[in-house]
């Protein structure tokens, strides 16, 4: 069964959701589907996606209030005549994209990657625009069901990681030199945007206890975002300069992750946590919170879960793994096995493909 899918991705950088879209485009192309991509002007995904697409349309996108985007997208739909539209982003693409697809008479699929609750009345109205909603975790699916979205409309297809990228050995000399680490230092990493819901403040509160118990530890915060100056100031005020480091956004995580002793994700809210999948694929043990979809990645055998916003529990979990390297090693191996079986790119592509096929066979969502 051959078909054409028009994908809409509003992210400008090739990580997170946009990277998942790139994986999906490649997998669909290999299975004979024809892809069309709509993305913002100068978005990184444009060039990365071209080998797997019939066409890439870079169009102006200015967020949720850019009402003209619906018209621009509708024109692309009319020109390319896809069998369905897959909206991969919320920002400026969900409601406006759903309206454009409906006006064009093409069924729309929406990927939902966050677990932020919405008012029930709005959710029931909004999700009528979509023939199916694909959630990246069961936790997000449960949020939508609780808001009254019909269960037959919501399908869970977990995000994926390219395990081959992360199954390399650590170049320890490079790692220590790059991050100015002493030979005996152990490295704890956080890989997340510097935004409130990622919970960096909880780890900073826990940091003095961690560093007192394990003084050879360095905490590296990878990512960028609006809290950078605030976090830097707090690190300085706490006297943690050089021991907690804002390491910035990195595009070489496959080289970095195998060198980390532990990855921590202290989030208050989280749809799934692709950075944790990447860390698990690299064989790194995990510490995270019981928030959103994190318990679907962090199990008893590959990490430790603590309550959200509980710095004391977070500190004890980190200290416990740093002081028991054999337990940490076993957890790392278990995490790698989990990612290979449940979070592979093939599984993600086949999951989305199953949604497409079911819609096209049934004719659901056509107006």
Index terms:
single chain; 17% strand; 15 helices; 6-stranded parallel beta sheet; Glyco_trans_4-like_N; 367 residues; elongated; 2 domains; Rossmann fold; Glyco_trans_1; 7-stranded parallel beta sheet; alpha/beta
Q: What does this entry look like structurally?
A:
With 367 residues, the chain is of the alpha/beta class. The protein folds into two domains: 4-160 and 344-362, Rossmann fold (3-Layer(aba) Sandwich), CATH 3.40.50.2000; 163-342, Rossmann fold. It is 42% helix and 17% strand. It contains 15 helices and 13 strands. It has helices at residues 17-30, 44-49, 68-80, 95-104, 120-126, 138-146, 163-166, 172-178, 200-213, 228-237, 253-256, 274-281, 311-322, 325-342, 345-362, and strands spanning 4-8, 34-40, 55-59, 84-87, 108-112, 132-135, 154-156, 186-191, 217-222, 244-248, 262-265, 286-289, 303-306. The strands form two sheets. A seven-stranded parallel sheet has the order 3-2-1-4-5-6-7, with helices on both faces. Helix 10 links the parallel strand 9 (217-222) and strand 10. Helix 9 crosses helix 13 and helix 12 (274-281) crosses helix 14. The relative contact order is 0.12. The model has no long low-confidence stretch (mean pLDDT 94).
């Amino acid at each position: 069964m051959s078909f054409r899918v028009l994908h809409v991705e509003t992210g400008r950088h090739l990580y997170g959701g946009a990277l998942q879209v790139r994986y999906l485009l490649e997998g669909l192309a290999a299975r004979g589907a024809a892809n069309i991509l709509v993305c913002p002007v100068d978005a990184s995904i444009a060039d990365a996606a071209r080998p797997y697409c019939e066409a890439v349309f870079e169009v102006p996108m200015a967020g949720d209030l850019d009402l003209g985007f619906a018209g621009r997208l509708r024109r692309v739909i009319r020109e390319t005549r896809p069998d369905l539209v897959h909206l991969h982003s919320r920002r400026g693409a969900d409601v406006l994209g759903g309206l454009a697809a409906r006006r064009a008479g093409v069924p729309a699929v929406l990927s939902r990657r966050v677990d932020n609750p919405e008012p029930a009345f709005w959710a029931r109205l909004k999700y009528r625009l979509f023939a199916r909603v694909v959630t990246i975790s069961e936790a997000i699916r449960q949020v939508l069901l609780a808001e009254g979205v019909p269960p037959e409309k919501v399908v869970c297809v977990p995000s994926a990681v390219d395990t081959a990228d992360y199954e390399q050995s650590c170049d320890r000399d490079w790692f220590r030199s790059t991050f100015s680490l002493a030979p005996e230092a152990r490295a704890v990493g956080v890989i997340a945007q510097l935004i409130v819901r990622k919970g960096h403040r909880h780890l900073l509160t826990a940091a003095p206890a961690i560093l007192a118990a394990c003084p050879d530890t360095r905490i590296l915060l990878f990512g960028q975002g609006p809290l950078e100056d605030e976090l830097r100031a707090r690190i300085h005020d706490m006297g943690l300069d050089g021991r907690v480091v804002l390491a910035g956004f990195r595009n070489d995580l496959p080289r970095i992750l195998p060198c980390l002793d532990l990855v921590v994700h202290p989030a208050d809210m989280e749809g799934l946590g692709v950075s944790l999948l990447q860390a698990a694929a690299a064989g790194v043990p995990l510490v995270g919170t019981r928030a959103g979809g994190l318990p679907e990645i962090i199990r008893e055998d590959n990490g430790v879960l603590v309550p959200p916003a509980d710095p004391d529990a977070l500190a004890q979990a980190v200290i416990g793994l740093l002081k028991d390297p054999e337990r940490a090693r076993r957890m790392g191996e278990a995490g790698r096995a989990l990612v290979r079986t449940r979070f592979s790119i093939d599984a993600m592509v086949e999951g989305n493909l199953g949604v497409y096929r079911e819609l096209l066979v049934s004719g659901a969502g056509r107006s």
